[in-house]
Design goal:
This protein has about 240 residues and is of the alpha/beta class. Helix content is about 45%, strand content about 15%. The longest helix has 25 residues, at about 70-95. The mean pLDDT is about 95. It binds 3-methylbut-3-enyl trihydrogen diphosphate (IPE) (2 copies) and magnesium ion.
Length: about 240
């Protein structure tokens, strides 16, 4: 990792972990096998992020739209989430990782909600890395949820003005800086309803690699590329 010591790292990396199904299909395996191997990639990327000292990582694990998949696949994904929470808790505690959810947790069965809340509570004081998992997430729903909250608080006088800062406080990502880098695996050139408000000026990196193959080295390539980007935020490029 030595050549990364002197490069500009992002503060917040967001990842659309895509391609588990294709990875499995290419091997004539059921899609769930791709999700299981994808979980190994999650562990690798989380650990690498923590070791590099990047303070925020947000992983898109399940979208609101993903509920429309066959029941069997959804159930297996829920099962894998449960396994992940149980297996990874010791690592989170050891590595100082705080676990957080963005999305509609109430869409999930009670037992999953309980597990998620338990891990959030146990890891709540960890400070090395804030790991956000987007579950039953929809960027549009998040914006509507924020608008509803703002409308109420404006009416009852809790807020007097509505600007970008106030708006951000009503999002599920409250308190989390906007992503600097958005990575999408498996080559799709779309954002699939992910962090619509927050990615206004995020650098986008798409790789053809499928998520189960996306490990530390591929991640470091993305970070190197990010460090070479010229972020202008609408300004004129400096001479
Ligand atoms: C990403 O992989 C994981 C989830 C969306 C849950 P996919 O399951 O979307 O895999 P592909 O895109 O069909 O290959
Ligand atoms: C986006 O992947 C959601 C997650 C990675 C959880 P999808 O596979 O659901 O997105 P589309 O359908 O290709 O846009
Ligand atoms: Mg997909």
């Amino acid at each position: 990792m030595s050549d990364l010591e002197n490069i500009k790292l992002p503060v917040h990396v967001a990842i659309i972990m895509d391609g588990n199904g294709r990875w499995a299909q290419m091997r004539n395996l059921p899609r769930v096998e791709g999700h299981l191997v994808g979980m190994e990639s999650v562990r690798d990327i989380v650990t690498t992020t923590r070791n590099l000292g990047i303070p925020y990582l947000t992983l898109y694990a399940f979208s609101k739209e993903n509920w429309t998949r066959p029941k069997e696949e959804v159930n297996r994904l829920l099962e894998i989430l449960g396994i992940y929470l149980e297996q990874e808790l010791p690592l989170m505690m050891e590595k100082g990782i705080r676990f957080n959810i963005v999305g509609d947790l109430t869409d999930f069965p009670e037992r999953i909600q309980k597990k998620v809340r338990d891990v959030m509570k146990k890891t709540g004081k960890n400070r090395e890395l804030c790991l956000n998992i987007a579950l039953s997430y929809s960027g549009r729903k998040e914006i509507l949820h924020a608008v509803t909250g703002i409308a109420e608080d404006y009416k009852n006088g809790k807020i007097k003005k509505i600007d970008e800062r106030v708006f951000s406080r009503y999002l599920w990502t409250k308190g989390i800086p906007d992503p600097d880098l958005l990575i999408r695996t498996s080559g799709e050139l779309r954002v699939s309803n992910f962090l619509l408000w927050q990615i206004a000026y995020t650098e986008i990196y798409v790789t053809d690699m499928l998520w189960p193959d996306f490990r530390r080295e591929a991640y470091l390539d993305a970070l190197r590329e990010y460090s070479r980007r010229d972020r202008r935020f609408g300004r004129v490029k400096e001479a």
